[in-house]
Amino acid sequence: MSIPNKDEKNNKGFFAAMSSGLSVFGSAMHRSVGGMLGYEGVEVINPEGGKDDAEEEAQRGRWKQEERDSYWKMMQKYIGSDITSMVTLPVYIFEPMTMLQKMAELMEYSHLLDRADECEDPYMRLVYTTSWAISVYYAYQRTWKPFNPILGETYEMVNHCGVTFVAEQVSHHPPMSAAHGENEHFTYDVTSKLKTKFLGNSLDVYPVGRTRVTLKRDGVVLDLVPPPTKVNNLIFGRTWVDSPGEMIMTNLTTGDKAVLCFQPCGWFGAGRYEVDGYVYNAAEEPKILMTGKWNESMNYQPCDMEGEPLPGTELKEVWHIADVPENDKFQYTYFAHKINSFNTAPKKLLASDSRLRPDRYALENGDLSKAGAEKSRLEERQRAEKREREAKEQKFTPRWFDLTEEVTPTPWGDLEVYQYNSKYTQHRAAIDSSDSVDGVDAESIDFNPWQYGNVSAE
Fold this sequence. Notes:
The chain is an alpha+beta fold. It has helices at residues 6-11, 16-23, 54-58, 65-75, 99-104, 111-118, 122-135, 137-140, 334-340, 358-364, 368-391, 423-432; strands at residues 31-33, 42-44, 94-98, 145-147, 154-160, 163-171, 176-182, 186-198, 202-215, 220-225, 229-232, 240-242, 245-251, 257-262, 274-280, 286-293, 297-302, 316-320, 401-410, 413-420. β1 and β2 form a beta hairpin.
């Protein structure tokens, strides 16, 4: 029997009650601000409220009024555009972390991939791997912007569940990153190229990328397609993040797949954070239902052909969010703090590592003035390197990843794929096998992702 279609699912099955209950709310009500002179038509959404509080919500948020007004006037010309690398933003809306480090946050619950590798049941493998993919969304809801990596910048991480992780900024225009993570159970490879659409007071973020996980025991290869993300209330109101849409994890070896729906936030927060769906076999028959909240936990239960729980089974938890710090300024998890620390840095840390960025470090220490100045200096140095590269008719070549000839389609556009070249593995093996003692304090290393030694920023 084939998978029930969407119309059928709305009328029967395990999630029928939830679907019918949410339908009266729909997605979060988008309200235009009509009473603020000069800002008529600005879309403001209060995820915890109804349809009549847009003007009150618009006065909230972290922007000071004069700065908010200035940026709104500047940003209006970009409405409808991809602003991934077009706009210079003030440092006080940033968090002290780069996009490369944020990519590493997916490794927090990597033990779920270990369990998937050890698992005999092909459908439970998908339960573990999709729960792993969902687990990072708690961290992704942070509303502070990470720093854009400098071309050639890297991030290395060790000392976490036996995982070695490396990421590199492989392209500046368009901004693209590649990463590789590995332990005895799995390899993780991603090429990421974010695409955005600025809508005035919100931003649609499309995850143009390719994510592959290989489970080492049986050589199973899994492909992940995440849902898009919407950042609401960018300038007016309290910024918040939602990711309505489907997440699909496909076992490329067997044809089995998991399809999970991230519910949109409705009025008064109805449906916010909720995720539900099924694991299907290659014949598209439901085998296991999954339900939960991406900011709390995920559960699973075997089901019949109609998607109903099997008699004699019970809903079991597969993942639960770890404890998080209270009242953390940047809404960091303990793992995010670990990512930023030098405790997860390997011996003889690369000088191109994100931890060493002076703007990131200054922001972490609360010096916004220095952070802004250092950010501007790095960006101008990057522009100077580009001019030098063009004058010499040279191209930038990533160190740890190679550009392949493969172009893979995604729901949001084609993607050029970068492949891990294993040189980092060789690099680390040579260092780890060396008897030499690393007497250099990693925090004293000057940040150096540059292709050329001395380039004037004039």
